Amino acid sequence: MAKHFSHGTLAAGIVGAEMGNDVFHKDQLELTGLRLILFNNEKIPAALGHKRDVIDIYSCSFNLDNPFTANAIESKTVLKGGVEKGRQGKGSIFVFSAGNNFGQNTKIHDRNMEFYASSIYTITIASVGRHGKRPKYVRPGACILAATFGDFRTWSGDILKSTSNWDSCAIFQGTSAAAARASGMIAIMLEANPRLTCRDVQYIIVLTSSLENVKRYGNSVQNAAGLKFDKYFGFGLMNATAMVLKARVWFPVARQLSYTTIFNKDSDKVFTSIVSSKTSVPPLKESLYPKLLEQVAVFVDIEISNTKVEDIDIVLKSPSKTLSYLLSHKKSNTTETKSLNGPAMIHWTFTSVHFWGELLTGEWKIFFKKNQEQESLFTIRNISISFYGVSDLKEASTIYSYIDPSDISNKSEIFDLAEEVFEFADEKYEEIKRNPQSATVAIGWIVGISSLTCLLIWCCLKGPCTRPIRGDN
After folding, report:
1. Residue (of 312, 121, 111) closest to 230 by Cα position
2. Which residues span the membrane (predicted)?
3. Are 128 and 215 in contact (CB under 8 A)?
């Protein structure tokens, strides 16, 4: 069989690995293979809705190639229906790979630009490299919930291999492998507690994942609920042991509630390089609306002249001062991506998990920023925001460590600078290995710039110590 047809088999091998090969142990696991010859609006929904009362987890190691492509009403309906009615009402669990960005032909530089990754009904998983590094193919996304090893078996282990269509195992790497591994972890968790709903699974992943062993170069941010997140790895590296232990004692979360409002706009058209808009959410009746957040979805209908989508940042700010990049501009030092022609026209719903556990009430702000000096005409047609969460806060103080909003400061710009410097250092190190004669100059660059950057980060972070306080809600 042709080599490229082995992708699904490789993913299945990761999900279904058995005890004795140091990967997973799932006694009751049964696999169903659904082969999609054509990725279209008919085949994909049919696969995602196949026997949804029998299938617990849909492990999807694929993505759409084109940005801002809504995969028709059928896909939205099947995802929503699966989460609400699948598994006899407990909800189908849709695990999607965050996607790999290789070469110059790829068009997506932020995972929030892709339909399945950005859906509130899916669990989007990124890949972590050896020693906790970020693989070069990984792209940011506020929709990414967590990550796991997609290139190597463990933090410093051997290259990841899996079952193939040939007579031996084959190398299987990337976010496809990471999503398959995450699906395997969730399967173990369901063995420990089959009563878990799809939202219970999301909560457990959020609360047990950690950025402690992920090399972020200081790029993580802590939200007002005390949860640390990263734009590349979500809430961090998944921990199968912690997931199982928490699943055994987990009490089901309350039903999900939602609230939608629109952003105010001073003008439909404005000529500038940055635009902001805000909306205030008053205290709502707890039994009807969410008070404690899970996910946020922002619908944007805007056109920006004299620019491209790659040059735009869209940032959402919560009442607690947490910042989430709904869309990040394309960095010049990453793998080149195929440009989208200007003007930048965005008609899309972006999602973010970064406000998980925060309170809804207060003023929310959204910013549209160009990473170019010249001004452009911003034509704002519509901006709305939907909040998803629960109203019951009786257990919040035992789950989250709420901190004073005045103690939250977003240092993403200085951390982004640090990340670029350390990536530069990695490139110089690779250059040394290829050309030892350049070692002296390259090492000088690495030591000099890295030292200055560390000093800059230290100055930025130094200040009075803050101590998390326990929520009394």
Report:
1. 111
2. 442-461
3. no
The CATH class, in words, for 3-248 is: alpha beta
- For the chain, domain boundaries: 3-248, 257-407, 412-461
| Beta strands 344-352; 292-304: pairing state | antiparallel
Q: Which CATH class is domain 257-407?
A: mainly beta
Are 85 and 74 contacting, i.e. CB atoms less than 8 angstroms apart? no
Residue in the structure block whose two tokens are 């006899």 = 88
d(CA 26, CA 14): 11
Give the 3-state secondary structure of residue 348. Answer: strand
How far apart CA 420 and CA 167 sit, in angstroms, is: 42
Three-state DSSP class for residue 202: helix
| Token output for 209 | 């994942």
**pLDDT truncated to tens, each residue of the chain (473 aa)?**
444 556 656 655 566 665 555 444 445 556 565 565 556 667 888 888 888 888 899 988 777 778 887 766 788 899 999 999 999 999 999 999 888 776 545 688 899 999 999 999 999 999 888 777 888 888 899 999 999 887 666 666 666 656 665 666 656 666 778 888 898 889 989 999 999 999 999 999 999 999 988 876 556 789 999 999 999 999 999 999 999 999 999 989 988 999 999 998 767 778 777 888 889 888 887 678 899 999 999 999 999 888 888 889 999 999 999 999 999 988 754 444 444 456 888 999 999 999 999 999 999 999 999 887 778 888 989 999 999 999 876 666 667 777 766 665 554 444 454 455 445 455 554 555 556 555 555 555 455 555 555 555 544 544 433 333 222 22
Nearest 5°: phi and psi at 168? -145, 170
CATH fold match for the domains 3-248 and 257-407: no
Q: What 3-state class would DSSP assign to 284?
A: coil
Strand 57-60 relative to strand 93-97, pairing: parallel
Cα separation, 209 vs 194, whole angstroms = 20
Name the strand (E) or helix (H) holding 73: helix 72-85
Instruction: Tell me which H or E stretch contains 443.
Output: helix 439-461
E strands, 227-322, in order: 228-229, 257-262, 269-272, 274-281, 292-304, 312-317
Burial class (CB in 10 A: 0-12, 13-18, 19+), 273: middle
| Neighbour-count burial of 121, counting CB atoms closer than 10 A to its CB (0-12 exposed, 13-18 middle, 19+ buried) | buried
Helix (H) or strand (E) holding 396: helix 396-399
Angle (CA) 353-356-362 rounded to 5° is 105
Half-sphere exposure of 71 (CA within 13 A, CB side): 27
